[in-house]
Amino acid sequence: MSVTVPQPRATRDTVLFTVVVAVIAALAAIPTGLVILFAGGGPIVLVAACFALVPVGPVVAAYLWLDRYEPEPKTLLALGLAWGAFVATFLALVAQEAGTIILSLSEQAGAVIVAPLTEELAKGLFLVLLLVWRRHELDGVLDGLVYAGMVGVGFAFTENVLYLATAWNGSDGAPGGMVGLTTTFVIRCLASPFAHPFFTGMTGIGIGLAIQSRGLAGRLGWPVLGYVLAVLCHAAWNTSATLGGGGGFIAAYVIVMLPAFLLAVGFALWIRGREALVLTSALQDAARRGYLPAAVIPYVVDLRQRRAARRHAHLVGGVGAARAVRDYQQAAIELGYLHHRFLRGTAPRDFGSRGQAFVELLQQLGPAVVLPPGAPAPLVGSVGSVGPADTARTTLPTALHQETNRHE
């Protein structure tokens, strides 16, 4: 049995967002590709692209690992990569060229002032589009970090292709050839593949905090503060590369950027660990209201028990049973995040209809779900019940619909 988790927003809006962003990315890819091709000098661009791909897989995998509680739609993650690789790169190139000319700045000043402002704005624009157009996909800071990471990875890939191709050709007295290519590869792809995801992550954190804010000041202020921090981090990074003939970069990398990155990793891991507490608390309250059985919460929240439940279902009932467990867990996770926002007073306007859809999906999936021995079965009805008499208790009460009107 396979049931798709419902999306309360109209399908046409979802498709429209995907199509519009994909078309924009495709259009931006043409001039961006031409710039790289002409700047890199032809065939070497393909070699540079192969080198630039090396860090993409591991960095993307790290963000997907962070996103295991509530995996974001693969289409949106791919759009984030494409936006960073083509749209943000193109917008940044145009803005930097115009800004440098208009302000009559040197190349060094442009790298320190114009580049951080324009690049972080271009990358952050995708997060703003998500916030405005696909807000129901954003539940908090972790989601903001994941989407920001995808955009940053895409941007870094295209930028690395350009830098690697230029390094092969040699510039400003650089040796060029394999020496120049290898040096640039080590610095940009091995030593600092996290740079752009890290910078844009500041904006992502701001967007995530805005989602969780009750007041208008927080909803507007956090994204702006996140963008400012992204620009400052980016500017500091670019400044270090211009000091001391490379010595400043190494010193800044060891003393400032590496500790800052480790701090950011620790923060991301803390946020990810906190998700279990948030979901447990929200789902326990949801269970008290009769939306799902309390005994299934560990099989939803604990990652190890989630995997064990899917393995057991596969052994007992095959692929269909494993899929039913997976869909049940995902629907419960979605309900948990939504209920958490309701409890915080930051629920979206369509909270009632979305919550109802998830509760109904849990009921629908229940008879097909097979959990390990000791788990409640079948998974229908409300806490402590399996019969149709309790069906009414598993629907969202009218009071919740009424209270939703006080949010947002």
Features:
408 residues, 0% strand, disordered N terminus, Membrane protein
Report on this model:
The protein has 408 residues and is mainly α. 75% of the residues lie in helices and 0% in strands. Helix 3 packs antiparallel against helix 6 (141-169), helix 5 runs antiparallel to helix 6 and helix 6 (141-169) runs antiparallel to helix 8. The longest helix has 42 residues, at 247-288. Mean pLDDT is 83; it is low at 1-10 and 380-408. Keywords: Membrane, Transmembrane, Transmembrane helix. It holds the Pfam family PrsW-protease. The chain crosses the membrane at residues 15-38, 44-66, 78-103, 109-133, 145-165, 185-211, 220-237, 249-271. Residues 382-408 are annotated as: Disordered.
Topology:
Layout: H1 11-40, H2 44-53, H3 56-66, H4 74-103, H5 107-133, H6 141-169, H7 177-191, H8 195-211, H9 216-241, H10 247-288, H11 297-301, H12 303-344, H13 351-365, H14 398-404
- Measure the end-to-end span: 37 Å
Number of strands: 0
- Low-confidence residue ranges: 1-10, 380-408
Shape: elongated
Encode the helix/strand succession as letters.
Answer: HHHHHHHHHHHHHH
Question: What's the helical proportion of residues?
Answer: over 70%
Separate helix tally? 14
Structural class: mainly alpha
At a glance:
This protein is mainly alpha-helical. The protein folds into two domains: 11-242, no CATH class; 278-404. It is built from 14 helices and no strands.
